[in-house]
Design goal:
By secondary structure, the chain is of the alpha/beta class. It contains nine helices and seven strands, in the order βααβαβαβαβαβααβα.
Length: about 240
């Protein structure tokens, strides 16, 4: 049975975090080494909420960033904390409830069975995106970017942008995270680096769940940055 550590990037997540943690199945708690909430400069009661949850779940910890540093820096810190904590796999689980903690045990088992180093949850693989409330413009833009990304990276994935990412310990210890962006294209750069190093990358379908969560991602800026990642990959900028 594979063990894991989870990190949760959090910004003003006091309202949503309790529900996310409540959705952890008992089986998952049994596999968990630690859960690190990386509070990226929240101005609400995120830290107090995490401390209250930790009283019930001692594996839960909070790391504050002051001031807000951005998504990539927060994920980098979460990976570092989870590597230190231990576990066979490291999981990025967002604080807004979009991604399924109920699937984590299944995903880590799939990684162990297939020998995968990166596993991303796909909102498009099982056709759940539009039915789950994804805005149509995001669905269309995502499909267009994915078409380009598959050609750039030589893969056949259906979703590069969900943010629900699992790492093997090998990937978490070996990829050059400090060289990657502090912005939201960090996850795509992780895939580019892993692909350049011949690591095994896969995806599994996840349910799509949009419930009016606040988004801090500028879609045009993000799309342009993704195009830059593809160009940099083709130029060999992510090679070892």
């Amino acid at each position: 049975m594979a063990s894991c550590s989870i990190f949760i990037p959090a910004y003003n997540a006091a309202r949503t975090l309790p529900e996310v943690v409540a959705r952890f199945p008992d089986e998952l708690w049994g596999r968990l080494v630690a859960v690190h909430v990386i509070d990226d400069g929240s101005t609400d009661d995120t830290q107090a909420v995490v401390k209250a949850l930790a009283a019930e779940h001692p594996k839960l910890h909070v790391t504050p960033h002051r001031p807000n540093r951005g998504y990539g820096f927060t994920v980098r810190e979460g990976i570092r904390r989870c590597v230190e904590a231990g576990g066979d796999y490291i999981v990025c689980l967002h604080a807004d409830g979009q991604y399924p903690p109920e699937k984590i045990a299944q995903f880590t088992d799939h990684m162990a069975e297939r020998g995968l180093d990166l596993l991303q949850g796909s909102r498009h693989k099982d056709g759940t995106a539009l039915a789950g409330g994804m805005p149509r413009y995001k669905w269309l833009a995502g499909r267009m970017l994915t078409w380009l990304e598959n050609r750039a990276f030589g893969l056949a994935m259906t979703d590069y942008h969900s943010g629900f990412m699992l790492y093997s310990r090998k990937a978490a210890q070996g990829l050059p995270f400090d060289r990657l962006s502090g912005y939201f294209e960090f996850d795509l750069e992780v895939i580019a680096c892993a692909r350049a190093r011949g690591l095994a990358i896969g995806e599994l379908g996840i349910p799509t769940r949009y419930a009016g969560e606040a988004s801090h991602l500028g879609p045009i800026r993000y799309g342009l940055r993704c195009l830059r990642v593809m160009a940099r990959y083709r130029l060999g900028r992510y090679d070892p």
